[in-house]
Amino acid sequence: MKKVLLVTLMLGFIGFLAQPVAASAYSLDEQKVDALFEQAETTTMSIFDETAPAHLPALAPASEQSKDPLVAILLDFFVGYLGIHRFYLGTKTLTGIGYILTCGGIFGVVPLVDLIVLAINYDDISPYINNPAFFMW
């Protein structure tokens, strides 16, 4: 009986949220919109531009950015058998496919060793970023 009551309440709440709103409730002043566009300043800037304003730091390309070791360790722990942590670290696609085809990296041995290696080298995981080898250690 509790389940029926809960489902009824949920369906009623969803029905309440799904009520259509009349379009006449909204109005748009096109003159104000045009005035805003006329006042707007047009600028173009690349995120890799060294001439960026001082308050906006220029970003490095994704391949040069450092990867967070904690994220790599968590990915390895939860979905290491799929090689997702290797994709995060910038490995080629074939390495991830190799993890999948070898039943989770030789039955889970490779992700386990990857987890240990990443945990031990937590301070500097740069040798493992963009590492194309199947065994990153």
Describe this structure in words.
This protein has 137 residues and is an all-alpha fold. It has a domain at 69-128. 49% of the residues lie in helices and 0% in strands. It is flat and about 65 Å long.
Task: Describe the structure concisely for a colleague.
The chain has 137 residues and is mainly alpha-helical. The protein contains 6 helices and no strands.
How are the SSEs ordered, and which strands pair?
Layout: H1 2-17, H2 30-39, H3 69-79, H4 84-88, H5 93-101, H6 105-120
Helix pairs in contact: 3-6
What is the N-to-C order of secondary-structure elements (H for helix, E for strand)? Answer: HHHHHH
Structure classification: mainly alpha
Fraction of residues in H or I helices? 40-55%
| Residue fraction in strands | under 5%
The overall pLDDT average reads: 79
Number of DSSP-assigned strands? 0
Q: Please give the count of helices.
A: 6
Distance between the termini: 57 Å
> Roughly how many Å is the radius of gyration?
26 Å
For the biggest sheet, the summary is:
none
Short key terms for the protein model shown above:
137 residues; mainly alpha; 6 helices; 0% strand
